[in-house]
Amino acid sequence: MSEQREVRAQKVEALRVSGTMPWPDRFRRSHSTAEARGLPAGTTGVTVAGRLRLIRVMGKLLFAHLQDAAGQLQILVRREAVGEGSFEMLKKLVDLGDFLGATGSMMVTKTGEITLEARGVTFLGKALRPLPEKWHGLTDLELCYRQRYLDLVMSPETRERFGLRVEVIRQIRRMLEERGFTEVETPVLMTTPSGALARPFVTHHHALDIPLYLRIAPETYLKRLIVGGYERVYEFARCFRNEGMDPSHLQDFTMLEYYVAYWSYEENMEFTEELLKTVLTGVYGSLETARQRTGVDWSGEWPRVPLSDLIEREAGIRLADFPDAPALRDEVARRGLGIEDAAKLGRGSLVDQIYKKLCRPKLVSPVFLVRHPIDLSPLARRSDDDPSVADRFQLVVKGWEVVNAYSELVDPVDQRKRLEDQARLRQGGDAEAMEMDEDYLLAMEHGMPPISGWGMGIDRFVALLSNAANLRDVVFFPTMR
After folding, report:
1. Residues 6+ apart with CB under 8 A from 429
2. Are residues 175 and 271 in contact, defined by beta-carbon separation less than 8 angstroms?
3. Which of 15, 82, 246, 266 shows a CA-CA span of 20 to 30 A to 336?
4. Ordered alpha helix ranges (H), 155-296
5. What are the average pLDDT values for consecutive 10-residue runs of the chain, which has 481 residues?
6. CA 433 – CA 418 distance, rounded (Å)
């Protein structure tokens, strides 16, 4: 590699000697490669630019492929058209991976390939290191994650996957805006880690000399905005959770959360199904095409299943028979379920671990899980007909939790009690239990309307749609050791 770099560095000096800038400051294009491909033959004054991906010299002719964000276009260079100096520069000083600009007219070759016949070629940037070998690209997954820029250059599939991510976000934002939602921003640095059951990243604010936490969720700040008079708010929020990594979890990820005044979780469930079906139709053209591309049947009415029923069916545990953490721990031990750190977990976290280990992997088609135990949902409203469960739902697809949503708890007295319970669990060793948040309680005591809130992991949803096996496949630059 160092030898190839040295050869290319020598070409940089040769370019300078010839009067060519190796890295000029600008270039004006008239068309992208895709736009140029759509022009009729004979169109003149066409200027494109891109990275050189292929070059073939055939006597006095040179064929090249330029790649930009829109695709690739073949360029034909005739020696008599560009002059001896430019033609020799292309032959001797240009390498694959360099950037070129070309101006000319559109034509179709005898083999039927749409081509730009160049009247002039401009050198736009020297690559000091070669690209990966064309036919194999980057085959090492870890190298793809570490050098995503090369993965994007070499792999159409990677570019398509990230294009899907962009389109999914665009479609979601469009529908939310059409329904009267307001996009907002809330703090990434928080004085109290709140909004979810998770271990936070800890940092220090030197100017204020206080500990701070990277947010684990934007929830409590978005609900403060409901207190302030907003009725429909959402945020695409970068979140951070200092937990284990696996194919469906990253420690930093993008979460979409929204909150709506005067809704319950039931209206939210109806809207969720409508939202996601609309997004899928916008992305793929139809739900049938979405089924073909994702391997999931998104049509029909998505079923609603109580979490306790699912656990009883798949794990054989009737949660009502084990009303507290010690009793449930004993049952977990008796059945040999192998729940890690079970002795440190509260009842809610135990239920969650049983569900994740024994139940969730078996859920393939879209299903709404409802009526979670209240101790698993410290920010959710108690159900009126059964105070031991929450007005909450999760959407699960292919064994992945895609959406988590509640009727929000707006009773500050009940909220304080639950946060106190969480604080005791935290003191007892449950690192994912929530901390007391006095500032949020202060906001609640100024009055909240009925609210339903919603959260979806964007990385997870895009991975699901693109059949990616790992969330790192849909994040441009995942954190690596």
Report:
1. 344
2. no
3. 246
4. 156-178, 219-227, 265-284, 287-294
5. 89 96 97 98 98 96 97 97 94 97 97 97 97 69 91 94 98 98 97 84 96 95 97 97 88 97 97 98 97 96 95 90 90 85 83 91 95 82 91 95 94 91 83 82 96 96 95 94 85
6. 11
